[in-house]
Amino acid sequence: MPFCPQCNAEYKPEVSMCADCQVQLVPERMQTEVTEYGDWYAVESVPNEMAGNILQSVLEEDGIPVYLRCHEVPYYGGVKGNLTESEWGDVLVPSNLLSQARKSLKAYFDSLQDV
Ligand SMILES: [Zn+2]
Question: Which domain does 5 fall in, by range?
Answer without folding.
Answer: 1-30
